[in-house]
């Protein structure tokens, strides 16, 4: 079996094993969803720090643990989540600065502190937003919407790009992406949103489907390209190897962590004012 075929088999098997577990935990909500998203947040934060800092010091492990805790914060204390998350960001910044002030290296302390703070925000932010979505009324279906626009965009972009792609989107960052795939992703994200509306979520409006589909088709690819930029800047192929055949956690959720905060903001702040 060739290396390419072996990777394909690993990808399919991993998806068949992990996807039902992921959907089950998200459907349960509460601490079940928090456990899933906390583990994913920890993995994302860890991968970012390994890419940028190579080796984790105790402060780095502390940031990973704090990222893991954030979805639980939203699950247990949703009313106070904003204040608690702001406090966690402040704690991260204070701890990182103080660690490098006392332990060095002084010449790299500012840059390393910036990476620790970015790892915390990037690693948990989108996944904690997904936990906040799950806590809303009809939150389970809004989580599905976040997944649908992400996966619908990615799937349509992949197939359209593979069979019709001729014009490179951003070859310096991601040589395989094309403009044809990018616009195909718009159709996929919006189309799958209308499928969800028709068969599973009749409370979704036409505006919901179009707005979320359009925004997801911009933010999802942006998240993908930003993670590719990170990997190219540090000369790594995959963010990690936690998922056999798929690479790291960041490789899997790079688009979702950009889309989830958008869905949360839309449902909580914009949608109520559209009626």
* Assembly status: single chain
Strand content: under 5%
Give the termini distance in whole angstroms: 57 Å
Low-confidence regions? none
List the helices and strands and how they pair.
Layout: H1 3-28, H2 30-53, H3 58-76, H4 81-103, H5 109-134, H6 139-164, E1 168-170, E2 174-178, H7 179-199, H8 206-234, H9 249-253, H10 256-270
Antiparallel strand pairs: 1-2
Q: In words, what does this structure look like?
A:
This protein is an all-alpha fold. 78% of the residues lie in helices and 3% in strands. Strands 1-2 form a two-stranded antiparallel ribbon. Helix 1 packs across helix 2. The longest helix is centred in the last third of the chain and has 29 residues, at 206-234. The mean pLDDT is 89.
Main traits of this protein?
single chain, mainly alpha, globular, two-stranded antiparallel ribbon, 3% strand, 78% helix, 2 strands, 275 residues
Summarize this, please?
This protein is an all-alpha fold and 275 residues long. 78% of the residues lie in helices and 3% in strands.
């Amino acid at each position: 079996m060739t290396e390419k075929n072996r990777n394909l088999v690993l990808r399919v098997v991993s998806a068949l094993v992990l996807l039902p577990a992921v959907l089950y935990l998200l459907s349960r909500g509460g601490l079940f969803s928090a456990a899933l998203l906390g583990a994913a947040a920890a993995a994302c934060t860890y991968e970012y720090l390994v890419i940028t800092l190579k080796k984790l010091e105790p402060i780095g492990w502390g940031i990973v643990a704090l990222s893991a805790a954030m979805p639980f914060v939203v699950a247990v204390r949703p009313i106070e989540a904003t204040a608690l998350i702001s406090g966690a960001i402040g704690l991260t910044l204070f701890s990182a600065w103080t660690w490098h002030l006392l332990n060095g290296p002084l010449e790299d302390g500012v840059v390393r502190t910036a990476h620790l703070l970015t790892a915390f925000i990037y690693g948990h932010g989108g996944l904690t937003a997904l936990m906040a979505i799950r806590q809303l009324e009809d939150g389970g279906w809004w989580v599905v919407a976040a997944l649908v626009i992400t996966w619908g965009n990615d799937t349509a972009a992949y197939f359209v790009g593979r069979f019709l792609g001729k014009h490179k989107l951003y070859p310096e960052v991601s040589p395989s992406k094309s403009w044809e795939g990018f616009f195909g992703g718009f159709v996929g994200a919006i189309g799958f949103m209308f499928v969800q509306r028709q068969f599973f979520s009749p409370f979704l409006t036409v505006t919901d489907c179009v707005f979320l589909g359009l925004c997801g088709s911009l933010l999802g690819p942006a998240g993908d390209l930003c993670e590719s930029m990170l990997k190219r800047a540090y000369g790594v192929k995959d963010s990690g190897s936690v998922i056999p055949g798929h690479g790291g956690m960041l490789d899997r959720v790079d688009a979702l962590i950009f889309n989830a905060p958008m869905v949360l903001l839309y449902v909580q702040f914009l949608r109520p004012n559209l009626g």
